[in-house]
């Protein structure tokens, strides 16, 4: 697991217990959004997902860093209902999901779940 040292001023948006989400090894895109994990457990689950599906998680990470609120039919969409206000779902693979809450004011994405598709969806 990474120690997540601060690399740039945008990291100052972190609020404990948030940690910067581990970037895929091949990631070299200019990031507009700060992507963080809700806590270390979520980051650990994300790292396990990267091990299982490196190409899919790279695409997911790129989308979260550049356009987390852009709908992709069947793959990326906001959740419905009062419990899920502001939450989005990203289908990484047929059986794996990432759930997150984008904050357009701070340009920050908080990933609160990464892993096997749960039923029902976890709440933020």
Biggest sheet: strands side by side, in what order? 1-2-6-5-4-3
The H/E string reads: EEHHEEEE
Number of helical runs? 2
Weakly predicted, low-confidence segments: 5-11
Oligomer: single chain
Instruction: Find the structural class using helix and strand composition.
Output: alpha+beta
Describe the structure.
The chain has 124 residues and is of the alpha+beta class. Helix content is 21%, strand content 24%. The chain has two helices and six strands, in the order ββααββββ. It has helices at 40-52, 54-66, and strands at 19-20, 34-37, 76-78, 88-91, 96-103, 108-116. The chain has a six-stranded mixed beta sheet with strand order 1-2-6-5-4-3. A hairpin with a 4-residue loop joins strand 4 and strand 5 (96-103). It starts with 18 loop residues before the first strand and ends in an 8-residue tail after the last strand. The model is unreliable at 5-11 (pLDDT under 50).
């Amino acid at each position: 697991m990474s120690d997540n040292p601060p690399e740039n001023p945008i990291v100052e948006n972190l609020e404990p217990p948030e940690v910067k989400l581990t970037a895929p090894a091949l990631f070299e895109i200019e990031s507009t959004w700060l992507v963080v994990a809700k806590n270390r457990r979520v980051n650990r689950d994300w790292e396990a997902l990267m091990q299982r599906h490196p190409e899919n998680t790279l695409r997911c990470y790129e989308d979260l860093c550049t356009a987390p609120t852009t709908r992709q039919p069947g793959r990326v969409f906001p959740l419905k209902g009062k419990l899920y206000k502001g939450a989005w779902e990203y289908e990484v693979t047929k059986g794996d999901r990432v759930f997150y809450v984008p904050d357009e004011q701070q340009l920050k994405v908080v990933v609160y779940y990464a892993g096997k598709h749960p039923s029902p969806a976890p709440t933020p």
